[in-house]
Write a structure and sequence with these properties.
This protein has 380 residues and is of the alpha/beta class. The protein has 2 domains: 135 residues, Aspartate Aminotransferase, domain 1 (Alpha-Beta Complex), CATH 3.90.1150.10; 238 residues, 3-Layer(aba) Sandwich (Aspartate Aminotransferase, domain 2), CATH 3.40.640.10. 42% of the residues lie in helices and 16% in strands. The protein has 13 helices and 15 strands. The strands form 4 sheets. The protein has an 8-stranded mixed β-sheet, sandwiched between helices. Helix 8 links the parallel strand 7 and strand 8. Helix 3 runs parallel beside helix 10, helix 4 runs parallel beside helix 5 and helix 4 crosses helix 9. The longest helix has 28 residues. The two termini are 26 Å apart. The mean pLDDT is 95.
Amino acid sequence: MLAAKQVEASGKKVLKLNLGDPNAYDFDVPPYVKKALVTALDSGKSGYCDSQGDLALRNAVVKQNSRRGFDSSADEVMVCSGLSEGLSMLYGAAMERHENVLIPSPTYPMYESLAHYYEFEPRFYSCDESNGWQPDVDDLRKKMDEHTRFVIVINPNNPTGALYDEKVLKEIINLAGEFGVPVVSDEIYDELYFGKKPVSMGKLAGDVPCIVMNGLSKNYFAPGWRIGWMTFLNCSQSPLFEAVNQVSRIRLCSSSVGQAAAAHALENEGEYAKFLPAQLAKLKPRRDLAFKRLNEINGLSCVKPEGAFYAFPRIESGPWVDDKEFCLDLLKEKGVLTVFGSGFAEAQGSKHFRIVFLPPEDVLNPAFDAIEEFMKEKGA
């Protein structure tokens, strides 16, 4: 972002394809959820609430879980200030320095960064680009050992936009059960898909410990509200849950008014059913445009994203030492801001970059024109 600010300071316009924040473009929180936040403020809900989360929201999460195909109870739900806080509480409460966590490659950087922060080992299992970025369960098995504490699954995926096949998810659950390792399933984008519907790990967990994570940030286009939740399936009576609960008490609670609005958001399924189709009707053509344009550019290729709002194109040719150099050159020469793939723990030696297809077509098309021109000029 510093380089982008320097380019803007020089007077050049920057086309921003970097930020996974719907509100930075032409998306917004559902009106009925905004009204619920105002109502919560006017109703005096500005005090502290239960550290585990307001009961009304936890009950609403239970109903949402049921709609996703699995049973749970309010006692199994923990509310957090976004999934970043939830993961930090999980890692901090449960991990020892000699342990490891298995993370998909490529991955959202938080999963690796927090592992380093808490001084334990992030291990990466491969996702196969030639197979729609599906996880390689054989590679996952090779990386798992007696010191593995969690298996992370991100579905739909950031940064690739992949949707994982149910068969693959079942294989991961079975493997985790074989080793007695909890699965942490990040499902924050699970309403944003363009064909087949994502399958929740909660539906497949059986008796395997599984922590299903979700929130307002992406499905309700409210990332700045910082309201997320974790459902602890088959482990709510475990030392793990109690340790996380103790950590939650240290920070007192997540936003009380945000939780009240979130409960209203989840309870009003009919209002959401009216709201969401119009958002997907904007996103899908932009996804289609991004996929088409990227694959028409010599030197680039891109797997079709099936969910979320990201694409993760491969740099097939060109003079760049790595994808960071590619992204910086593209920014400085053409004013297109993307994110270099090595920041997402991609496979060693590969070159990718991540874009969002959240912007409208009148931003996307000039950006792709500039990328195409850039690749031609570099002889890619």
